[in-house]
# Entry
Amino acid sequence: MKSEKKIKFYPLDSFNVNILLKNYTDLLKSHYNGRYKMIVNSCDNKLLSYHHSTTLDHVEFSHPIFHLLNSMIKEIPYCGIYYGIITSCYLSKIITLLQDTNNISHIDLILRLNRVQDIVFNYLDQAKQKEELNGLNLISIVQSALKQLILEESFKKLIAVSVVKSVLTAADESSCRLGHIQIKAVDGKDYCETFNGIIYKMESLWQPKVIENDHKKYRLMLFTCPLDNSNEEYLKITKDVFIESLVAEDIKIVASQKSIDKKLIFYLRRRNIIALERLGEETANTLAHSSNAFPVSDVSRVNFQNLSTFFGIVDRVTYITILDEPYILMEMDRSKVVTLFLSNRSFDTLDQLKAIIKECIHAIYSVFKHPWVLPKNFDSNLALELRNFHDPDILLTKLMNLFAETLEESFSFKENNINSTIDRNDLFLIKRNSLAQAFLSVSKIIQVGMYIVRNQC
# Structure
């Protein structure tokens, strides 16, 4: 019987930090519009208690921000809520800073991150002297601490933003589960809603009038090209003809993967047509799949006298308010489209838990995968492990074994991208340690998930 491969993690102190930082700087820039945010869940401290183990003790984080996060996890076991805030929001600030300055030193990054750490830890030290920390008052403590940071948004808004916003593609037994998933940490309160549809956040200025309730179906036109002055083909069409054609075909929703001219939005609104712009590629693909709309990539090829071959069908359209923000919910009964708002404490069903963990691992790993690829049969192997419900530590070890073997087999050496002082083996260790820290984050979520599955499902 083949024995499992043992993994030994090495510290990164001896590696060239400047080369490492440059690699991650390029990586952060390339993922500016990608899925670089982490899914986190915060529960009572008994659910997120820190367990000392050989695996955890020997893993070193290879990006400065993870030194901070590692310290936070060790110091405060149940700090998942602001772990996610700093990861998603502060990392976004760093990416913006990198884009603005084109160059930032390792020292500058460390100083900025140390400032966050010092502010939070000072408040926590003061709180420890006055009261016992728990999952509830920790949030208000960290809220007070992070208010000192110079951020564009208030902390109340930051704590309620999406930690992850992406399209979830997860096949169930019917192989047709496709949806738009948003996971929110909502100011320490339980919050979980599931909708059979795609949610789109509306700009308050462009909210259309209430659609008549007697409409049973809503026709939708989907464009993957911009409908504004940047599109030469759009400039050639007559706006009156365009709008009258939509009205004649009873089109109620015009959605674009990219931008829509503000004047056109205004004219559509006057005719009681909903305009959805900047959907993004993944959401647009989901909408096309769900509504059976034909995505229009070139408006010059559209016969506006006959739009029947292009439009799709949405079963119901509803306006809803989430966290005091306006959203439009488009529901398609026949497609099993699931929009899930998950709290920082609750899971709804076992199927959703599995899908979330799968998406979590994929999202976190996507930060580190370039130029590497996911291992062969990763999804099926992960699904098998989840079905077996191994202990979180065992599951983490198995996943790391899988990745270590894959990296060793598919390692590609590019001499022009490394310093001569770093050999092939050193780079392999850097990659492996990066993956290790990602899965440490995943293991925390799996640990919470296993507890909930055993006790509530």
